[in-house]
Design a protein that fits this description.
191 residues; 5-stranded mixed β-sheet; mainly beta; 3-stranded antiparallel β-sheet
């Protein structure tokens, strides 16, 4: 199928802008025709890949080793440089974002897997997402964000309010688990 024509200049140089080609591998050849109507054989094939899209990466996942909350899946951590994993187009460059701020990048493997250690994150809530850019220059939409909480600050020491021989009470950080200790032995807990 003819996708374009041009005229060679006096020096033999030519340039052709092809019609829009569909995505995929295209095997392009050229032929020359002179003023007498003689046509050359086709040139060797030039394989060209037309790539105009890239899928958005998977939502980042906080690794279990970085998730120090009460479970390894609650996305609460005291690690300020947590590690995230995910998938994207094979060979693409994945950029990890905290909101709109880049906090790390890596190349996706031939299987599409990536692992990124984030730049230091401050205490608080973070919306972690990823974008990918392929070798053709296509940039994906951002992935769905993962809500992550960084809490690297230890709670203030609880305060005793009173007690008896069998129970004690007091105040502490909201949501914290309070452990009652006899030396280093836990003898009771409260939340």
């Amino acid at each position: 199928t003819k996708i374009g024509t041009g005229i060679a200049g006096a020096d033999g140089a030519w340039s052709i802008t092809a019609t829009t080609l569909a995505a995929g591998v295209r095997n392009i050849t050229v032929k020359a025709a002179d003023a007498a109507g003689n046509t050359s054989v086709a040139s060797p094939v030039l394989a060209v890949t037309i790539d105009t899209t890239i899928a958005r990466p998977s939502r980042p996942d906080l690794t279990a080793a970085s998730d120090t909350g009460t479970s390894s899946t609650d996305n609460i951590t005291s690690v300020t440089t947590p590690v995230f994993t995910g998938t994207a187009e094979a060979g693409s460059t994945v950029t990890l974002l905290d909101g709109t701020t880049a906090i790390g990048s890596a190349l996706a493997t031939s299987a599409g897997a990536w692992t990124i250690t984030a730049a230091p994150l401050a205490d608080g809530a973070h919306a972690i997402s990823a974008i990918a850019a392929d070798v053709a220059g296509n940039v994906s939409l951002a992935s769905t964000a993962l809500a992550v909480t960084i809490d690297a600050t230890a709670p203030a020491a609880p305060v005793f309010a009173g007690g008896t021989a069998s129970s004690v009470s007091g105040t502490g950080e909201a949501g914290a688990t309070i452990r009652l200790l006899d030396a280093d032995n836990i003898i009771g807990t409260a939340t």
